[in-house]
Amino acid sequence: MNRATALIELGSSHDECLYSQAAFLADASHEVHLVVSPDLEARVSGWDCVAGLHILDSSGGEWGALRTAWRLRALLDAIGADTAVFNTAQGAVVRDFTLLPQGGRRLAGVLHNIHKLRDSRGQRLISRRIKRYLVLNDYLLENRDDRLDLTLGWFYPIFFPQVEGVPVDKQPGEFWAAVPGKIDFQRRDYRGLLQGMVDTELPANLKFLMLGPYENDDVRREVQELAATTGQPGRFRFFDGFVENATLQSYLKASDLVLTLLHPGTERFGEYSRIQITGSFNLAYGHKVPLLMENFFARYRAFVGNSIFYGKDDLVPTLARLAADPGPIAPLKAAMAEDPRLTFEYQRDQYLAVVDGST
Fold this sequence. Notes:
Helix 8 (190-197) links the parallel strand 8 and strand 9 (206-211). The chain has 15 helices and 13 strands. The protein is elongated, with a radius of gyration of 21 Å. It is of the alpha/beta class. It has a seven-stranded parallel β-sheet with strand order 3-2-1-4-5-6-7. A six-stranded parallel β-sheet has the order 10-9-8-11-12-13, with helices on both faces.
């Protein structure tokens, strides 16, 4: 009889990490029950690796987190789940859930910011019961500096449900540089990219895909104005609102490079360079599309053999060279296709070593 395991995400994001985990668990004969918020229901429905989909709305009010925790425990008891994995192992509901008797239920979780273990009182409280965590890239473990007696592993959630592709209309000879994710100025250096293009002659085949919604209307206005000042607004493809999974996957598959635009000097560079990831990494790994990264990231094993590096002020010239001569990209794509670390089996074993407790 398969073991019932609950995979839980009660927030409105991080759903891109769920499918890989469900597939790993199902492949290891777990009966996977996905417990998600109403916000995520449409995005996670119909997966063949999931035995049951359960929608749990969080309670509001002063005692809402505790009420939600009680309802979650009752649901897991009804499912018969002997393992619970929190896709976002932080916050008041997870804290309150860990304070409830679990009857021997095994608990594990994914940390999206490794410094939560050091800096968050609530996380330390959660860690009295959750002793097994996963982070989303091995370079984060190099920057761990808590002193807690915990098991920490890593995995890449780089597998996605099969979806019917959408037409992408890539013209012969075009060179596509994709920037996945929400358009904001705290994380990515859109200003550096766009300002660097002003009065710069670029190959006609170079196109940019901005695969994410704008953070707000002010960001939209500034980005559109900057794109206009380049004198080359036709190079950019913008998308309004949330980019549906089929659209995102189709455009990424057709891309030549993934740009992270993580540059020293941006407001959140310290976070994304050391303690949490951008989803661009795993999208690039999953579709075997090389990354274009600032030189800082060359220090990490995770990006060796799958990335091209540049100095912060050399981004636009590097793009121009690659669009004119994409020769350096083909060997990287071939290496990614053969990289054992990017296979389902390797990542499954990385994940299960923590969740099933063999480490």
